[in-house]
Design a protein that fits this description.
256 residues; alpha/beta; seven-stranded parallel β-sheet; 7 strands; 46% helix
């Protein structure tokens, strides 16, 4: 029996990276999975990978910044599987590295719409479904940027701090409903987002590993699968007394 056997899980931003690894691990640990993203091709591929491995999955396209898309996503999950037990709100964008005083309002709005408002909308929909079936567990993707600052990334930092605030409030308000809500705070992870940030920061002169590995006390950046392990564990009954937490998974980055 897997960690989440018999449960239904939903993962946003699941077309690649941490989201894809999380969806695959949910399935490997026994859950039926609702895969969501704005990337139709990648999302369908993730769902197909789960089915090819003997699991159950559907893909539902959804832009997390749009309430109507999240309502449709919740409806699709209910129609397909009748309930929702676990959710991972992973969808996010990074924006461009720009000094605070030069940050365009449009960049701030775009990042907050996905990273903060998107988590807000998903939480509302997920909590409503979980209250109907007596509880559940939600993991929101924050970042080490939700714990500390990063020059040039003020909108991203603000959005990830907001995720932790929403996580704590949702946990406080819905603990008695049997719903646990936690956030995780990844450091540098092998993803397209980190490649983009490393390329911007080095002006294309350094590879992601050359630039980011030395910044982590463990001596390397992480793999998406290593983040997925924490997410699925937090959604399992083994984490039954964990809620309202913001857990670093960062190779020691924030211990410095």
């Amino acid at each position: 029996m897997g960690l989440v056997a018999g449960k239904v899980a939903m993962v946003t931003g699941a077309a690649a990276g941490i989201g894809r690894s999380t969806a695959l691990l949910f399935a490997a640990e026994g859950a039926k999975v609702v895969v969501s993203d704005i990337d139709d091709k990648g999302g369908e591929e993730t769902a197909a990978m789960i089915r090819a491995s003997g699991g159950e999955a559907i893909f539902v396209r959804a832009d997390v910044s749009k309430a109507k898309d999240i309502a449709a996503l919740a409806a699709a999950a209910t129609k397909a599987y009748g309930r929702l037990d676990c959710a991972c709100n992973n969808a996010g964008i990074e924006g461009k590295i720009t000094p605070f005083h030069e940050q365009p309002e449009s960049n701030f709005d775009a990042i907050m719409a996905v990273n903060a408002k998107g988590v807000f909308l998903c939480l509302k929909a997920e909590i409503a479904l979980m209250r109907k079936n007596g509880g559940g567990a939600i993991v929101n993707l924050s970042s080490v940027a939700g714990l500390i600052g990063f020059p040039g990334l003020s909108p991203y930092v603000a959005s990830k701090h907001a995720v932790i605030g929403m996580t704590r409030n949702a946990a406080l308000e819905h603990g008695k409903d049997g719903i646990r809500v936690n956030a995780i705070c990844p450091g540098g992870i092998e993803t397209r987002m980190l490649d983009s940030l490393a390329d911007q920061a080095s002006g294309g002169k350094l590879s992601t590993h050359d630039m980011m590995d030395p910044l982590h006390p463990i001596g390397r950046i992480g793999k998406p699968q290593e983040v997925a392990e924490l997410i699925v564990w937090l959604c399992s009954d083994r984490a039954a007394f964990v809620t309202g937490a913001a857990v670093p998974v960062d190779g020691g980055y924030t211990a410095q």
